[in-house]
Design a protein that fits this description.
Elements (H helix, E strand, L loop, with lengths): L2 H22 L3 E8 L6 E6 L9 E6 L5 E7 L5 E6 L2 E6 L6 E6 L8 E3 L2 H42 L3 H38 L4 H8 L4 H5 L1 H13 L3 H14 L11 E3 L5 E3 L7 E7 L4 H17 L4 E7 L4 H10 L6 E2 L8 H5 L7 E5 L5 E4 L4 H11 L2
Parallel strand pairs: 1-7, 11-12, 12-13
Antiparallel strand pairs: 1-4, 2-3, 2-5, 5-6, 7-8, 9-10, 11-14, 14-15
């Protein structure tokens, strides 16, 4: 090849590569509309790292009079992007090139996302809509019944004042109905889990499956979920999403019964820091809950009863709250008479302890022996008392 032809060849290659990289780095648009939002309120776009690192801010803007927002052009190859508005967080898959439109109603509970974008984003929005309808069908009646029962009980407790006998009678009176509600909730939870597992099996994008899997419980990860992950890994091969899915599965295996519980560094209700390992030498029920969680509040009297029964035999409870409001958290602690150590970083579902222990629903708990080894998980109702009786006797 002569010099002129060689230079021409190199120029062609360089131009082709320049065109390729220019296309690969071409920015994409991210915009949408917030119904019932506040005019000129701030909305932010950040990354949502797969490794659990702190999100990185990409852009900020404010809502227009009609509720629209527009971040303009962005050039992020982050696997996921997170839309932040007030206390709302919405994570969506990002392929680094497709325009994204995301809309929601700020007054709805929970907010329903609509929009359009990449095939992965569209599949995620479709799954969210399916899940929202499923949960509404399964839980709405139970929650209404629970609210009504709670109000009735509250009025009777207030009328009883400080009369200990009357308070105990009221607690006993409502226990059958509360237990029945718990049974209904657990049955609905199982139906929801089964339906969502079937939906996950049909997922054709690892990026979407990872988001779906953030709500899986341990049983799902270690059983039916494993086959689903293997299927999508075989389809897509090794990439950031399949690597994250398989790493998460290994983390659940590390939290199985018989393993030493992962260390936690916590801040208690007085602001003092301590480690989970500081509590070794006694059996510890690490109890994940929140003041806003009705099933947790219904279960609390059972935990209290077992604590009172076995606290002098080497048993204690560590309450880890997934609250994001300090006052509501501490009021609930006093109201439910939870007189054991408590901790919370007040980050809600982003709780560091909750994420480390793969907590995707509450109530949830882990029972540790004197050496910090996991001996049981998710003990509720009679199963908690039965396990403690097995350990300590009557």
């Amino acid at each position: 090849m002569n010099t002129l032809k060689y230079k021409s060849y190199l120029l062609t290659i360089c131009l082709a590569m320049s065109f390729y990289f220019a296309k690969a780095q071409e920015p994409f648009a991210f915009k949408g509309k917030v119904s019932n939002g506040e005019v000129q309120s701030v909305i932010e776009l950040t990354t949502w790292p797969l490794d659990g690192a702190a999100p990185k801010s990409l852009a900020k803007t404010t809502l227009e009079k009609n509720g629209t927002y527009n971040f303009g052009k962005n050039a992020s190859n982050a696997p996921y992007l997170m839309l932040n508005y007030k206390k709302m967080r919405f994570v969506v898959p990002n392929n680094g090139k497709s325009n994204i439109e995301l809309n929601f109603d700020a007054s709805a509970q929970p907010p329903v996302l609509t929009g359009k974008g990449s095939p992965e984003l569209n599949a995620w929005l479709e799954f969210r809509a399916f899940r929202a309808k499923l949960n509404d069908d399964l839980y709405k009646g139970i929650m209404e019944e629970s609210t009504s029962l709670t109000e009735k009980k509250k009025k009777e407790l207030e009328a009883a004042g400080t009369d200990e006998t009357a308070l105990k009678q009221i607690a006993e009176k409502y226990k059958p109905e509360e237990n029945a509600l718990t049974e209904k909730f657990m049955a609905a939870s199982q139906k929801s889990s089964d339906a969502l597992a079937k939906k996950a099996e049909d997922c054709s994008h690892a990026a979407v499956l990872y988001l779906i899997a953030t709500a899986w419980d341990e049983n799902m990860w270690l059983n039916t979920g494993q086959a689903t992950i293997e299927k999508i890994t075989k389809k897509e091969g090794q990439n950031a999403y399949t690597d994250a899915l398989n790493a998460k599965m290994k983390s659940f295996q590390a939290l199985s019964v018989g393993a030493i519980a992962p260390e936690l560094e916590l801040t208690d209700s007085t602001g003092k820091t301590f480690k989970l390992s500081d509590m070794r030498g006694q059996y510890v029920l690490v109890d994940f809950w929140a003041s806003w969680c009705k099933p947790c509040r219904i279960e609390n009297p059972n935990v209290v009863a077992n604590y009172e029964k076995y606290k002098d035999k080497g048993f204690t409870v560590l309450g880890i709250s997934l609250d994001d409001n300090r006052d509501r958290w501490l009021v609930a602690v006093q109201a439910d008479k939870l007189f054991w150590p408590h901790a919370s970083d007040l980050k809600g579902w982003e709780s560091a302890a909750g994420r480390k222990y793969n907590i995707t629903s509450i109530p949830a708990n882990v029972l540790l022996d004197k050496d910090g080894k996991i001996v049981a998980k998710n003990l509720r109702d009679a199963s908690l008392g039965d396990k403690l009786k097995e350990i300590f006797g009557n």
